[in-house]
Amino acid sequence: MSNREFPIHTVQTDCQDCYKCVRRCPVKAIKIEDNSAMIVSDLCIACGTCYKVCPAKAKQPRDDLARAKYLASSNKEIYVSLAPSWITDFPGISAEQMVAAIRKLGIRGVSETALGAQEVTAQTAKVLKDSHSKNEKKLFISTACPAVVEYIEKYLPELTPNLANIASPLITHCRMLKDKFGSHIETIFVGPCIAKKFEADRHPDLLSVAISFSDLRQWFKEAGINPSSLTPGVYDVFVPKRSEEGNIYPIEGGMLETLKAYKLSDEIYTSQITGIYSIQDELSNLDPDNLDRTTFLECLACYGGCVSGPCTNNKSSGLQKRIDILKQTSFSKDSGKRKPQYNININYRAQNMPTQDQNFDEAAIRKVLTKIGKSSAEDELNCGGCGYDTCRNFAKALIQGKAEPEMCVSHMKEQAQRKANALIRCIPSPIVIADSKLNIIEYNEEFRDTFWNEEEHSDIYDYNNLNGANLRDFISFTNLFSASLDLEQDIHKEHVRHEDKMFDVVVFNIDKKQSVGGIIEDVTNSEMHKEKIAARAKEVIQKNLATVQQIACTLGEHMAETEVLLRSIAKDYAADELEASDIQIRTNSSENRS
């Protein structure tokens, strides 16, 4: 079975790698894979705890709504088995309105799962009375909650024989519907439980599909149906009849209340346990052979009962929900007189759990513990931050490939601190980290040596420990740090003067409004070198300008002399040309006269 075919799965792209599901999963059925918390189906009991606590909604029940819609649109006769806790999830809607709304979805009829619960109570009362009459002194564990059955089969297989050999109210109800309306019908369960999908997967001949109240609400929305606005018709009633005392099953101790009507012997001990953690505590290390009387335990995986199921939407208090359930519950004269009518026995068998009793080599455990910084028993904090109750159990999970070293909070903190310290220590420039009040949190030796003033600081601070000292007492440019805190921005400022030195300063936010760091680079020598270069360049430029001016002056004198000479030559040339012209004119005149 692929991860998405399992009743609950991880939407890998939504997982934020927070490990909250690991911490809260009662059976640690979570494997960290590719930086995502994936469900280990062989270990999961589908209690829905991870779905309820996941802040990113990365854990999701299998989407069976499409399958339900397909059935409703087919030509088959579809009946809905509606969990009695519906009344707390759809407040203000009458039973007739709810039936009318569901029938508008293409459903032939709506029946109450509580009818199956009443049959289960009758069967259970008979089993307990028979056991007591035979003086068997046996332990019986209720099978109404599939998550509890899954937990016992997988993690307490020695108690599997103590599961009451009676089907759950849902499977019993489906059998009743098949007997009443025909084996050809299809059934859809609607309720607050993810684990009911197990029952649909294992009993497809009785239960076609299991969806949640959230799915039903979505179905209504898509179909444009508002149950509260409907006017029910004459056929909008529960079939084949209304339930009575079975409606009390969704609350803690509800099943025991129905058993009271059967007047069990005072020597038969009954008790209820709700919440998978409480069930773990109560049933672990329990030896049924030590019981001195017939004992029946009503066990529900959700605290307070099914009204607190993982797929419920009503956030009212548990007390209010219990009162709402009691309002719809009635005990008639027939209560306590019902006779078992259906063959609904189920033989439960323990599933093979190869990892349950896995032996771990001590050397391998110690090697893994050392890898996460747990070199001695004193290093094993057992803080539970990784999701496992002890460091050794976390090491076992690492060996199994279910966990990653990064899940150890203390290890990651120490590793981060070592890296930060190494960086601060090795960077040659002064570094300082301060809190929102500009008190020093971290610094390196370069910072201390650069800004320590023996006369000013020796009477106030310890040279070897400046933690807690006010940054204002050491540098004059704390305005950059304050501005970075206020603006929540990094600031880079060049050529910042402090006393007789020059610095380039980079201030960066670490925690918004809480802490800020600064890298301070002493550029005094480089700036002085630049100033010398600039002065020398200026000197050279001045000399060059003088030379150019001298050249220009000389060139100017030469140009003037040349101009005078050329003008003189031009003048003389012009005079000669004029004289030659006059001679030619005179010559021509003489020839003409002759």
Describe it for me?
This protein starts with 7 loop residues before the first strand and ends with a helix. The chain has a 5-stranded antiparallel beta sheet with strand order 13-12-16-15-14. Strands 6-5-8-9 form a 4-stranded parallel beta sheet, with helices on both faces. With 594 residues, it is of the alpha/beta class. A hairpin with a 2-residue loop joins strand 2 (30-33) and strand 3 (36-39). Helix 6 packs across helix 8 and helix 14 (362-371) packs across helix 15. The model has no long low-confidence stretch (mean pLDDT 87). The protein is built from 20 helices and 16 strands. Helices cover 41% and strands 14% of the residues. The longest helix is centred in the C-terminal third of the chain and has 70 residues, at 524-593.
